[in-house]
Design brief:
The structure is a single chain. The protein has no helices and eleven strands. By secondary structure, it is mainly beta. Strands 2, 4, 5, 6, 9, 10 and 11 form a seven-stranded mixed β-sheet that branches. It has a four-stranded antiparallel β-sheet with strand order 1-3-8-7, with no helix packed on it. The protein is elongated.
């Protein structure tokens, strides 16, 4: 049971990127899904989260620019990032709370991260 991110890359300020995170393995339910980021020399911070019911939360720094969404049919969470700024440069990590069928319990999964670089 794991999650894998994709969609990172380099873009100029003002551009857009879409990150994807797919969960795979014996999963019978996906609860909470979120994106975090960590810039060099800084702590990891929550960027956006989405509950099983679709409720969303955003960091103040990305409110109005980023949109988190999920498609449970393909066990995937997305992060649409618009109007990117150099300060958005970081490694972005996917986090998901899933019910592992084999384990019979909820698991907290983290991806390995995907680099997003925004140049001025």
């Amino acid at each position: 049971v794991h999650v894998v991110e994709s969609g990172g890359g380099s873009v100029q300020a003002g551009g857009s990127l879409r990150l994807s995170c797919e969960a795979s393995g014996s999963i019978s339910r996906i609860n909470y899904m979120a994106w975090y980021r960590q810039a060099p020399g800084k702590e990891r911070e929550l960027v956006a989260s989405i509950s099983a019911g679709g409720g969303t939360r955003y960091a103040d720094s990305v409110q109005g620019r980023f949109i988190i969404s999920r498609n449970d049919a393909v066990k995937t969470v997305y992060l649409q990032m618009n109007s990117l700024r150099p300060e958005d440069t970081a490694v972005y990590y996917c986090n998901a709370e899933v019910f592992g069928s084999t384990y019979g319990e909820y698991l907290a999964l983290w991806g390995q991260g995907t680099q997003v670089t925004v140049s001025s």
